[in-house]
Amino acid sequence: MSDLPPDFTLLQVTPELETGGAEQTTIDVAHAVVAQGGKALVATKGGRMAARLTADGGRLAQMPAQSKNPLVMLGNAARLIDLIRREKVSLVHARSRAPAFSALWAAHATKTPFVATYHGVYNAKSNLKRWYNAVMTKGDLVIANSEYTRQHVIQEHGIPPEKVVAIPRGVDLSRFEPGMVGCERVRALAEAWGVPQDERRLKVLLAGRLTRWKGQGLLVEAMALLKARGEDRILLLLAGDDQGRKGYRAELTDAIAAAGLEDRVKLVGHCDDMPAAYLLADLAIAPSLEPEAFGRTAVEPQVMGRPVMAADHGATRETVVPGETGWLVKPGDAEAWANALMEACEAGAAKRQVMGQAARTRARRLYSVDAMCEATLDVYARVLRARTAEHSS
Fold first, then answer.
1. HSE (side-chain half, CA atoms, 13 Å) at 193
2. Which helix (H) or strand (E) segment is 79 a member of?
3. Which pLDDT tens digit goes with each residue over 32-59?
């Protein structure tokens, strides 16, 4: 356990608590601080996950933290200064760029330690954008959600390597636990998706919102190449919400129809039961066209004991071990993906099972919520020690 002071009070600042990895991490860390006897506050607009925060003993400080309006951001800074003083906040942790400005101003004004998490690789096309992104690096320490993100932060902003710590995102091991998923959940999903009980083909699952860079179109192309070779041993399941991107969804539907793949590629929509989805599948696939900063959909299936095939760039190079827990494939190359899918078929069920078990063992060790929380609380303790040493010198 980390050595935080007994009266430790954490203030996390995040735009909203609707859905997503950064939001889940905010709640996990708040829970860990409370479990150690500290106080955990979250300044945010709120959202559907707020109830989970308060159920865990955290406290909500509602404010328009999602706003990028400079006047609202100034107002937020004043609210945060007030909150920091009133609640005797020990450390401020910002999780997004717009609220990081308000949080940084408030931390400076109250001389409170400040850390920020880089949750993604933000692209800067201009100096103004780079300046905007750099707010995340102005604190005592920066947390990056993978070694890939860490290297990006060091290179992009020219900050000393010792100021940036890589803490990979955690997966909820109690939720992603094969033993806790009853057969009826997997059966219900198979039925909803129209997958027959006696399906002999290799069931390949791509989980991710329907957006071009996630690579659904690339896989439809790879499936068309396999069909042209007379191969019919794979069933591709595309699970994900189009989040209003109707055009891209229609494009996928048209491509599937044009290639005559209706019986081989299914668009199954949003899935609420991902643990069951991974158990229904034989292989999970993450063919992102752009590098992932962390890539939860390459890690969750491994925790569930499934091998993973992922694009060979970004953080998936850290989360997938080729030949041991899965395959890494050349990004954007349909031919390479078609060949890799055939390789996974040829490997056979026994070999895939061995890979799945290796994936599970490794992912449980490296990517648990507990490991992520412990590493984060260690960063807090380290920052507080450094501040104390500064003051006493």
1. 32
2. helix 70-87
3. 999 999 999 999 999 988 999 999 999 9
Integer-rounded Cα Rg, in Å, for the chain is 22
Alpha carbon 99 to its chain's center: 20
Please write the tens of the pLDDT for every residue from 285-330: 999 999 998 888 999 999 999 999 999 999 999 999 999 999 999 9
Residue with tokens 């041991």: 324
Contacts (Cβ under 8 Å, ≥6 apart) of 68:
98
> What Å distances lie between residue 190 and 72, 265, 266, CA to CA?
48, 14, 12
Dihedral angle sign, alpha carbons of residues 364, 369, 370, 376: positive
Say which DSSP state 168 is in.
Answer: P
pLDDT of 75-110, one tens digit each? Answer: 999 999 999 999 999 999 999 988 999 999 999 999
Q: Is 165 helix (H, G, I), strand (E, B) or coil?
A: strand
In angstroms, the first-to-last Cα distance of the chain is 27
- C-alpha span between 187 and 184 (Å, rounded): 5
Sign of CA dihedral 45, 48, 54, 58: negative
pTM surpassing 0.90? no
Residue pair 209/339 in contact by the 8 Å Cβ criterion: no
User: Residue 193: left (phi > 0), alpha (psi -120 to 50), or beta?
Assistant: alpha
Q: What is the rounded CA–CA span in Å between residue 151 and residue 154?
A: 5
Neighbours of 320 (CB within 10 A): 27
311 φ, ψ (degrees, to nearest 5): -70, 140
Residue 301 to residues 176, 284, 329, 357: CA-CA distances in angstroms? 8, 6, 17, 11
Given a contact cutoff of 8 angstroms between Cβ atoms, the answer to whether 266 and 237 are in contact is: yes
Cβ contacts of 175 within 8 Å, gap of 6 or more: 275
Assess contact for 75 and 111: CB atoms under 8 A. no
What residues pair up with 171 in beta bridges, in sequence order? Answer: 368
Q: How far apart are CA 297 and CA 20, in angstroms?
A: 12
What gap in Å lies between CA 91 and CA 141, rounded to an integer?
Answer: 12
H-run or E-run covering 154: helix 147-157
For 137, how many CA atoms within 13 A lie in the half-sphere containing its CB?
A: 21
| Tokens describing residue 134 | 């750099």
